[in-house]
Amino acid sequence: MSITFNKPPSVAFLTGQFTAENVIKKVTRSGDLSGVFHDIAAWQAIPSDTPIYEVEMLNSLQGEGELYVGMTHLHPGRVGNEFHMTRGHFHQRREQGEVYFGIRGSGLLLLQNEHRKAWLEHVSPGSVHIIPGDTAHRLINTGSEVLSALAVWPSIAGHDYGSLAQGFAARVVLQDGKIQAKEVQNG
Ligand SMILES: O=P(O)(O)OC[C@H]1O[C@H](O)[C@H](O)[C@@H](O)[C@@H]1O
Ligand SMILES: [Fe+2]
C-alpha cells in the first residue's frame, strides 16, 4: 500500500480566488433580488442583468458530517441609499451554524435570530464570524471595493429564504454621508 499526496485546492488570500480542479460558480444579478432592496424605483432603474454577487464553491462531499466551502464576492455599490447585500437566509436545518472569514474589502455581516433581534459584525480581511445555529445571515458591502468572504458550512444545512419574506429587521444605508443601520418593522 502506498500513501498518496493529494494536491489540495487553494485560496489566494488577497483576492479570494480559488484554485481548484472543480469550482462551481453562481452569479446573482439585480433581477434575482426582487423584494430585497427597499427603494423599488431605484432597484427597477438598474439593468436586471447587473451582477451583484458571485459565489464560488469548491466541489466537496455532501451528506451528514460533510462541509461545504464557498467564497462570496459582493460588488460595491448601492441601490438608492442602501448598500449592496446578499439575499440572506436561515438554514433549512435551522440549528446548523456556519463560519465566515473576511478576505477582502470591508462591510458588515447582518445576523438575526428567530425573534427578529438583529445585530451586526464588521467584516474586514482576517475577521472571523461564528454564525450560531438558528441565525439568519446576510453580507453587506459598505466599502468601495469588492467584499470577499469565505464561508464554511455543513452540507446538510440547506437554505431557507421563505422565512425572511418579511425581510431583515435592519437596513444599512448611506445617510448624511455616514453608514447607518436602521431598525425596520417590516423589512
Ligand atoms: O444564499 P445567499 O443568501 O444568496 O448567500 C450567498 C451565499 O453566501 C455564502 O457563501 C453561503 O455560505 C452560501 O451558502 C450562500 O449561498
Ligand atoms: Fe448560510
From TrEMBL:
Pfam families: GPI (PF06560)
Reaction catalysed by this enzyme: alpha-D-glucose 6-phosphate = beta-D-fructose 6-phosphate
Cross-referenced SUPFAM superfamilies: RmlC-like cupins
Superkingdom of origin organism: Bacteria
Pathway stated in the Swiss-Prot or TrEMBL entry: Carbohydrate degradation; glycolysis; D-glyceraldehyde 3-phosphate and glycerone phosphate from D-glucose: step 2/4
The keyword Membrane belongs to this UniProt entry's keyword annotation: no
GO molecular function: isomerase activity
The keyword Isomerase is annotated on this UniProt entry: yes
Enzyme Commission number, as recorded: 5.3.1.9
Domain Glucose-6-phosphate isomerase prokaryote: 29-181
Enzyme class of the recorded protein, top EC level: isomerase
UniProt family annotation: Belongs to the archaeal-type GPI family.
PANTHER family, A to Z: CUPIN TYPE-2 DOMAIN-CONTAINING PROTEIN, OXALATE-BINDING PROTEIN
Protein name, as recorded: glucose-6-phosphate isomerase
